[in-house]
Amino acid sequence: MVNRIIAVKSCKVSFMSYKHLIKRIFSTLLLLPLITISLLASNAWSHGGVSVEDDMCLLRVGPYKAHFTGYQPEVRATQEFCEDIPVVGNAIFVLDFISDDLRIMKTDFRIIKDVNEIGNKAVLEDLGSEEDIEKATIFYKQAALYPRGTVNAEYRFDTEGRYIGILKAIHPDNGREYISVFPFQVGLINYMRYFWVFFMITAVSIAVFVFFLKRHKAAENADAA
C-alpha cells in the first residue's frame, strides 16, 4: 500500500515536472515570431546601395546618404516600400538627401532592366559599358540640381521582373562621380529568403526542445540519486 502511494506521488511529481517543462519550452518558443520579424527586417532590404538602418531605408551614394522611399498609391495607398515593389503598376520613388553635400551636386536617376539576371548582388562593374547601360535603360531622369534635397521619379512597370536603379551625383568642385546601384524586384516573391528564415526557426525550435529535455532528465536523475 505504501509503495502504491509512493508510486502515485511519484507519477504526480513527474507529471507536474513535465508540465513545467512544457510551459518553459512553450514560453521560449513564443519568442520565435519576434526572431522571425527581426530576421526579415534585417535581411529583406539589403540590395546593393540600399539598406535598412534604425528603421530607415538608406541609399548610399559614395560617402553620402539619402533616405529612399517607394510608393504605389494606386494599389497600396500611402504604404511605403524600401526598394522592392510588390506589384506591377505605377510606382513613385522619393529620395530625400540626408547629406547636405548632395544638394550642390548634379544628380541623375535611371532604371534599367536586369537583362543579365545579375540579381541582388549587382554592382556597377556588372552592368557593362555605358552603351550597355543605355540599351537596358527603361527610365531616365536627367541630371539636375536639387537644392531642396528631394528627388521624385515616377514610372509605370508593366511587367514583373528584376530591375536595377542607378543614382549618379557629380561633385561640382572636382567633377568626381558618386554612383549608387540598387537592384530591386517588381511583382516577385523571393521564396528562398523566407525558406532560410523558417529553416533557422525550425532548427532553433528543435535545439530549444532538446536542451530543456536533456536538462529536465538530468535534474530527474539527480533527484533520483
Structure, described:
A hairpin with a 6-residue loop joins strand 9 and strand 10. The protein is α+β, with helices and mostly antiparallel strands. Residues 2-13 and 37-46 have low confidence and may be disordered. The longest helix is centred in the C-terminal third of the chain and has 34 residues, at 191-224. It has helices at residues 2-29, 32-43, 73-76, 130-136, 191-224; strands spanning 50-53, 56-61, 64-71, 80-81, 89-97, 106-113, 137-144, 150-157, 161-170, 177-186. Strands 1, 2, 3, 4, 5 and 8 form a six-stranded antiparallel sheet that branches. It has five helices and ten strands, in the order H-H-E-E-E-H-E-E-E-H-E-E-E-E-H.
Key structural traits:
single chain, 225 residues, alpha+beta, six-stranded antiparallel β-sheet, four-stranded antiparallel β-sheet, 10 strands, elongated, disordered N terminus
